[in-house]
Amino acid sequence: MIWALIACSPSLSDKGSADSASPPELDDTALPTETRDAIAVAFESPADGDTFWEAQAPYLVVRVASEGHDDLTALHLAWTGAAASYDDAPTELDAKGTASFLLPDLAVGPHTAGLEVSDGSGRRGSDDVSFEVLERDVDGDGHVDDNFGGDDCDDDDPKVYAGAEELCDGVDNDCDKEIDEGC
To answer: What's the pLDDT tens digit per position in 126-151?
Structure first.
């Protein structure tokens, strides 16, 4: 590390004097490898492309690894995207390099959450994840899509749900896996 300090110190030959306003350019290749390496950041949950239904809060879990940092809790965290405006987002990692929290009250639609991690020496790392919040009852018939544990086998059609009147229309209106029974 002394090597980096010497490389950063202005000399009398740099720009004329030791009290020059700007330091000399630092050749990044002269720094030890662990100083140049980025901080590794990875979301463990949710996975890219995951879907959640409204009122189901995604649980964000991110893990950070960084050689040369014995105390990962000293790294600076900056949340981006959907996580940026959440007041209870963690501001530091735990001793294992993990940060996690629920992200409630997201609007229906696509979202991205990200984390940028930095230390005081300019090393950085980041990752983000994209996911979508889906409406539980798209067709507004009062029945939740069966993909979300409900009884609506076609959430694009308000005339189709468990217990609906079977119509003679070539569709399984009552979700009993039979089409037009009794017609």
So the answer is: 999 999 998 888 898 999 888 878 89
